[in-house]
């Protein structure tokens, strides 16, 4: 990028951040790394929370991180535990990094129905709505960095959302990373095969429930061999902190829309919700060998359908869990991060 363009991009970024962002973690700065939080307009009446991590030297392709069906962005990707913030790893490698919350999650707008009882009724926030939110964040990132295209990194349902966005807006995505995600390749899943479409608009989760599937997938009687206890504590704490109403319930619990679970049910039972043949981005598919969410068939079919992608890579992480980016470095995190950084330009 020429010097004049660099100055213009920097000026735009600083102006937008000055106008709309507030410093987080009491203005914390680690070295030259800064974190800012803002909200970006999406659909009418919907604002999407975005955390930006920047350094003065971060000028590679910007990355947007997409959370999964339950735990929102900061708890998933920016835990305040040294060595366990994927967002910080990416920005230290030179990528301006943005963590978003889909509507209904974390710091983003929540549908009015989420203020009532979970009850019964239509699940809220389906994939098409999240695609709207992703597009709003992509436009925000383009305005603040000067980049015409971005990299999307999606975990679990976040990978499904990222793939759907890349299929519908191929001109806005240069690199796509989908890990431990469903694609609708087969009818059959041990935990997602049954779903009531009238199960209610949202669901509640307490802290300990976040560790149940994680603990079950760790192939050791002592889970601390796989997961740092500080990570387990911070993951629960940050997830609960993402919902201002969490302490109003006993036990404390946070809300997450049920639409992601309805869509995941369809993907788990053979209903493909988007077509990978529409994607043109360089694409990396990562699957943990011990993942309980995605299936080998999802990887195989997605790779087979990516006929117009600029390039396709697949990586299987041996003896790694669904939560690999939060596991100990020697239990798959280092290998995951290495594959990710080797792929991103």
TrEMBL record:
One of its GO terms (molecular function) is hydrolase activity. It comes from the Bacteria. GO terms for cellular component: membrane. It holds the Pfam family Abhydrolase_1. Residues 1-21 form the signal peptide. Residues 62-329 form the AB hydrolase-1 domain. SUPFAM superfamilies: alpha/beta-Hydrolases. Residues 237-257 are annotated as: Disordered. The keyword Oxidoreductase does not apply. Keywords: Hydrolase, Signal. Its EC number is 3.-.-.-. This is Alpha/beta hydrolase fold protein.
